[in-house]
Amino acid sequence: QVQLVESGGGLVQAGGSLRLSCAASGDTFSRYVMDWFRQAPGKDREFVAAIDWSGDNTDFADSVKGRFTISRDNAKNTMYLQMNSLKPEDTAVYYCYAGYWGQGTQVTVSS
After folding, report:
1. Would you tell me which of 11, 78, 93, 111 could form a disulfide with 104, CB atoms 3.0–4.6 Å apart?
2. Residues linked to residue 50 through DSSP beta bridges, in sequence order
């Protein structure tokens, strides 16, 4: 079992940047494919990005391609989501996932 804790959310103006972190504990972090999801008010939770165990293979939702990058540091048991050129529609609670969910971190982008 893996425990996941997200951090790094906050309030930012449109066009700004944030870096989210997901710290994992409880199991061998490096064996997991890791994902970021987000859920905006009144909407379903949606996929944002994924990264394989090596960090060499990534995938992104079309809505964030070219603006977000995903990375991981297996030595630190941590995954990151670098979010640039943020838009108001990126406002959501962001969750990391590795077979288990974290508690989420709020990202709010003001126009």
Report:
1. 93
2. 35, 59
